[in-house]
Write a structure and sequence with these properties.
Elements: E1 5-8, E2 15-18, H1 28-41, E3 43-46, H2 53-63, E4 64-66, E5 82-86, E6 118-125, E7 133-137, H3 138-143, H4 147-154, E8 157-160, E9 186-189, E10 191-193, E11 200-202, E12 209-212, H5 217-231, E13 237-240, E14 247-251, E15 255-259, E16 270-279
Parallel strand pairs: 2-3
Antiparallel strand pairs: 1-2, 3-14, 4-16, 5-16, 6-14, 6-16, 7-13, 7-15, 8-9, 8-12, 10-11
The structure holds fe (ii) ion.
């Protein structure tokens, strides 16, 4: 029997995994292999998976405790730990503005005090062209900063509020009344340490980091923008072009991501999502 095979995709992050049927019995050794591969490559692609909602839920739950999506309307009716990422309404109409959602750089849930560990997406329908998801390596983004900026960031605390960062207007609409969190800043050091690998990472994003507590707003916003330019240089990215059946898992702490937002706005795009809050042992 051959084991799983990991093939690097991008220069720094991104790996293609073959040899695991995620809809079948995934044993503990395979789960540990996946966790270690995630530590190494930060974004994993499992092409050609055949999963229904129960099977997807079963697999995602093995990785850890699933978070219920903050917006109730996106939750899967039978599995509140799963949510839809779709531009297709219940009446079958396509939301033409869906194409611009989540196209600014962000880390899911950075506006909560305890952000999730993993994001998982499974593609059910993909646009005829475009619609990629782009990921940035936030460990390397930190390591490659000049020493003066690294020293400055070591003393800064990011204040995160949903969609309140300099790129926040491109995010998924307002939380308005449909949210469970209050409109309070989540507070995160600008430089965090990854709980599994111990690597330092830049925990700042254009969508939700509205300012640094120790700085005036204008100076903060300018710094957030500079950090985004630095972190999103082409050699620090992995761009995933989706095919039906692709399942992606990414490390929410050591990456940020955005939708490329370049698909034909009337094309259907349907994915099923799980957000892993805390990792199982
Ligand atoms: Fe996202």
């Amino acid at each position: 029997m051959t084991g799983p095979v990991l093939t690097p995709l991008g220069g720094r992050i991104g790996g293609r995994v073959e040899g695991i049927d995620l809809g079948g019995a995934v044993n503990d050794a395979t789960l540990e292999w996946i966790r270690n591969a995630l530590d190494e490559r930060k974004v994993l692609v499992f092409p050609g998976q055949k999963l229904d909602a129960p099977a997807f839920h079963d697999f995602a739950s093995r990785l850890g405790e699933l978070q219920h999506h903050v917006l109730r309307k996106y939750r899967h009716a039978d599995f509140p730990g799963l949510s839809w990422l779709t531009n297709v309404a219940q009446d079958g109409s396509v939301d033409k503005f869906g194409v611009i959602r989540a196209t600014s750089w962000h880390t899911d849930g950075s506006y909560t005090q305890e952000p999730p560990m993993l994001g998982i997406l499974y593609a059910l329908e993909v646009p005829s062209r475009g619609g990629a998801t782009i990921f940035a390596d936030m460990c390397h983004a930190h390591e490659s900063l000049d020493a003066a900026t690294r020293a400055k960031l070591a003393g800064l605390t990011g204040l995160h509020l949903h969609g309140a960062g300099p790129g926040g207007d491109m995010y998924e609409g307002s939380l308005a009344d449909d949210q469970e969190e209050g409109f309070r800043d989540a507070v995160h050091p600008a430089v965090a340490t990854h709980p599994r690998t111990g690597r330092k990472l830049l925990y700042v994003n254009a969508t939700h980091t509205r300012k640094f507590a120790e700085m005036e707003t204008a100076e903060s916003v300018a710094l957030v923008k500079d950090l985004m330019s630095h972190a999103t240089q082409p050699d620090n990215l992995y761009t995933h072009d989706w095919s039906v059946g692709d399942l992606l898992i990414w490390d929410e702490r050591s990456t940020m991501h955005r939708g490329a937002g370049d698909y034909p706005p009337t094309d259907r795009r349907i994915k099923l999502r799980a957000i892993v809050q805390t990792l199982s042992a």
